Amino acid sequence: MSISVSTSADTLLKTAMDFVEKNRGKITFLEHEVKGLLKNLGLPVPTGIFVKKEDVSPIHRLPYPLVAKISSGKITSKSDVQGVRINIKNDDELKRALQDLGKIAYAEGILIETMAPQGIEVIVGGIFDTQFGPVMMFGLGGILVELFKDVTFGLAPLTKEDALRLIKQVKGYRLLEGYRGRPPVDFDALLHIIVSVSELVAALPIEEIDLNPVALYPEGAMILDAKLSLRP
């Protein structure tokens, strides 16, 4: 297993500081804003566009199938308000999805993205703890993190060796290294995400960052959802 990670700490810090400066005074961010930051850091996110909720006929060149998700700083869980539409196959389905999502209370806009293939889902997160400072979290993603609490923690920033130890501590590690004939996930891609996020958490006044789920594949990975809040 190769564990090379080529993240430039200096480049990451400059990109992150530029993001904070551009959004001076802002505490919470919408999903497309967080993903824009992650993309600028060289992390894998789906191709997408953000549209206002009133725009039911957006001009786009994204290939179907698509995913449409409500964006709101006041909605904690998109699933709880039925704020996600998947496997949108054509313009008519997209128009209906945008109309439905735009009617949800507190909707600020809608994020339209290319639909990523199914993969093994993990969560990569970070918080600022008043006792320990910047702390990273890794575990099984999606609803599994809520059901089984299979997560591990480490102080940020993490080296790639630290990140690998974190990964190996979860009970679901066997799913990642290959289980019942399935190929192992791309550990280089996963380590790149964990190390980069840990450097972000250590460098910025982040209250919480939550990448859940991150879909892992035999080659590559994709950050499917992302949340970020800064300390005042």
What does this structure look like?
The chain has 232 residues and is of the alpha+beta class. It folds into two domains: 9-44 and 118-230, ATP-grasp fold, B domain (D-amino Acid Aminotransferase, Chain A, domain 1, 2-Layer Sandwich); 48-114, Dna Ligase, domain 1. Helices cover 31% and strands 28% of the residues. The chain has seven helices and eleven strands. The strands form two sheets. Strands 1, 6, 7, 8, 9, 10 and 11 form a seven-stranded antiparallel sheet that branches. A four-stranded antiparallel sheet has the order 2-5-3-4, covered by helices on one side. α1 (9-22) crosses α7. The termini are far apart.
* Topology order in helix (H) and strand (E) letters: HEHEEEHEEEHEHHHEEE
Sheet having the most strands: 7 strands, antiparallel
Q: Give the second-level CATH assignment, the architecture of the largest domain.
A: 2-Layer Sandwich
Give the CATH level 1 class of the largest domain: Alpha Beta
Shape: globular
How many strands appear in the DSSP assignment?
Answer: 11
**Number of individual domains:** 2
Termini Cα gap: 41 Å
Question: Roughly what is the average pLDDT, rounded to an integer?
Answer: 91
- Fourth-level CATH superfamily of the largest domain: ATP-grasp fold, B domain
Residues in helices, as a percent range: 25-40%
Q: pLDDT below 50 for ≥5 consecutive residues: which ranges?
A: 1-7
Helix/strand/pairing category = alpha+beta
Number of helices: 7
Radius of gyration based on Cα positions: 18 Å
Sheet-strand content, in percent, reads 25-35%
CATH topology of the largest domain: D-amino Acid Aminotransferase, Chain A, domain 1
